[in-house]
Design a protein that fits this description.
Layout (H helix, E strand, L loop, with lengths): L9 E7 L2 E8 L1 E3 L4 E2 L6 E2 L4 H14 L9 H5 L12 H5 L24 H8 L16 H15 L3 H13 L42 E2 L1 H12 L6 H7 L18 E8 L2 E8 L2 E7 L7 H11 L2
Antiparallel strand pairs: 1-2, 1-9, 3-4, 5-6, 7-8, 8-9
Helix pairs in contact: 1-5, 1-6, 4-5, 6-7
Length: 307
């Protein structure tokens, strides 16, 4: 496949084992300074973070510090009182909790509050009534994974970004993956752009959390899949459980787009990300434009599904 020369800003990386099939970088990491994207540019991956959150939580379950049946209320105490007392960790992981979502993708989004710490997220999550009985319907829910971040912090006694680094990035060798402040991006990191050419700095939280916002590179995501599927992050028995469909095309923190395929994806203002692993091949698209995928995403899926 060929990556368009002028209409795409980001990186496409397709690999099979140690073989690189496609590696292309296009567009600008920073338009004002004319800094071009390269294969190892860091990009925000939005909700791609949810798979990492699920792995942190499942790791704590494997250690006996949580269970799928643990209720959020048993850890939250009096915090977030509108969350139904019956909501469990499993409900949160499978988007079946029915809790009110502070970042509802089906509604007109409110102005993004200043979110930089777990205390900021706790405040932002409060005040949203329960929408459905826990366990009765699948409804994609950003707030559920932010709640999971809070639960993991309280159980482990560690800041959530540290948990992701220690439990996911380090065992996978993902040295370029971290929660970065959107208002203080370091070198080799792409600024996100809106359709009108403005940056996304006023459209995203200052720092991500359990539901999204980590930064990574295409090569780091390439490292992630063999580490995850090979049992280096959580034991293989838990990998199998996480990739078992719990609801339509969704496991525990991972999309299951077709039999034999597993996917992380995310999109936000100035962010487009998808990485799919199927039949030993990984295809990753990562872009600093929220319409960055377009026809390329379809081409990647066609490539992965062809005989």
């Amino acid at each position: 496949m060929k990556v368009p020369l002028t209409t795409f800003s980001g990186v496409v990386l397709v690999s099979r084992g140690d073989e690189t099939l496609v590696s292309e970088a296009r567009g600008f990491a920073h338009r004002g300074y004319g800094v071009e994207n390269t294969a190892d540019t860091r990009f925000a991956i939005a909700s791609g973070t949810k798979g990492f959150t699920a792995l942190v939580v499942v790791g704590l379950i494997a250690e006996g510090r949580l269970s799928l049946e643990t209720t959020a209320r048993s850890i939250l105490g009096a915090d977030l009182p509108l969350i139904d007392d019956a909501v469990t960790v499993e409900h949160l992981l499978t988007h079946t909790s029915g809790i009110g979502d502070y970042c509802d993708e089906e509604a007109d989004p409110p102005p993004t509050p200043l979110l930089a710490t777990s205390a900021d997220y706790l405040g932002a999550l409060d005040g949203f009534p329960q929408r459905s009985v826990p366990g009765t319907e699948f409804r994609y829910n950003n707030g559920a994974f932010a709640v999971l971040g809070l639960l993991a912090e309280r159980v482990a006694g560690r800041p959530f970004p540290d948990l992701v680094h220690e439990r996911v990035c380090a065992p996978a060798g993902m040295t370029d993956t971290a929660f970065l402040r959107s208002d203080a991006l370091p070198g080799r990191t792409a600024t996100g752009y809106l359709e009108d050419g403005r940056t996304n700095v006023f459209s995203l939280p200052v720092a991500g959390f359990g539901d999204g916002g980590i930064y990574s590179t295409a090569p780091d995501i390439r490292k992630f899949w063999p580490a995850f599927l090979g049992g280096r992050i959580v034991a293989r028995e838990w990998v199998t459980r996480m990739l078992r469909p719990h609801t339509d095309r969704y496991g525990l923190g991972f999309w299951l787009p077709w039999p034999g395929a597993v996917r992380l994806e995310g999109g936000d203002h100035g962010v487009s990300f998808r990485s799919t692993h199927a039949n030993g091949t990984t295809a990753t698209l990562i872009s600093n434009h929220h319409r960055g995928g377009g026809p390329l995403l379809r081409q990647l899926d066609e490539f992965l599904t062809k005989p």
